[in-house]
């Protein structure tokens, strides 16, 4: 496998990659939770190109996409965190959105994406909110993330874990 993670800008191509991956992510999260025909309606409602371009062209956000031979396998968005878990109060922290398509989840793919994110955030604490059944939780735990709370993903109204990694 030729796995590489790259910083990606909010260009048309970057947004196309992101939206293709987000569609897969939404379908994975919603599988068994809402009716299949409602998933496409939800995706259409939640994915707005203009909002995504504005978010990714904001200096407080960075997008990383992991590829195998130019095929996008997953993405991460690193954002400056103003609202963060209490455990991170008074710390510099970043919020991560992190997804790898189910058929490509492996230590190699995760490590590539995580190490690229870490390359720009090493001096920060990190936090992420994941569905409680997310297959990436063990990978984050091996990267020194700890579950510090429970919540509900607002977009989907499903139970979630808040995971934190204090700066090293």
From TrEMBL:
SUPFAM superfamilies in the cross-refs: Acyl-CoA N-acyltransferases (Nat)
Stated name of the protein: GNAT family N-acetyltransferase
Lineage: superkingdom: Bacteria
